[in-house]
Amino acid sequence: MAAEHLLRSVMRAVEKANFEPLYKAMSDDVVWKSAATLKGLFRFGGQYSGKKGVERLISELETDYTLKSLTTREVISKGDVTWGLFWVDLFYKPTLAQVCFDFAIRWRVQDGKVVEHQGFMDTAAMLVHEQSGLLPGT
Questions:
Q1: Which of 18, 62, 82, 128 could serve as 13's disulfide partner, Cβ 3.0–4.6 Å?
Q2: What CATH code is carried by the domain that includes residue 72?
Q3: Does 101 map to a domain?
Q4: Closest-CA residue to 45 (of 56, 55, 54, 33)
């Protein structure tokens, strides 16, 4: 499966809370770098290793968020690197606030498997929308 098609199909499944295609797409020793590089403002920050690490990350995400929609805006590839830009619409469970933001994903795919993931999001937008009390005046 071409990397662009792989990313699109995995994200369509994730929107329906079906993570099995994601797990099947990952190499056993995948390196998964979260949008926030360190734990702190978000419980899901940092780097995760292997499928078990990614399962832990998804569990942490589902503790605080419910995905409402995930819209693909653009997916492109060059060599073994594939980039995707997505519009994400979430509910933040502690406050029931709606959280919307652009999310970019960079995958390195080898032999049809994701060996490296890195995600980028607008963390300030998430904090403001969450009204989590982590920023002054929220």
A1: 18
A2: 3.10.450.50
A3: yes
A4: 33
Mind listing the pLDDT tens digit of every residue in the chain (138 residues)? 699 999 999 999 999 999 999 999 999 999 999 866 655 566 677 889 999 999 998 988 888 889 999 999 999 999 999 999 999 998 888 888 888 889 999 999 999 999 999 999 877 777 665 544 444 444
Q: Is residue 32 part of a domain?
A: yes
Residue type for position 109: V
CA distance 32 to 12: 19
Phi, psi of 60 (to 5 degrees): -65, -40
Q: Could you give the angle at the alpha carbon of 71 between the alpha carbons of 69 and 76, nearest 5°? A: 150
- Give the count of domains, the chain: 1
Q: Does residue 14 form part of some domain? A: yes
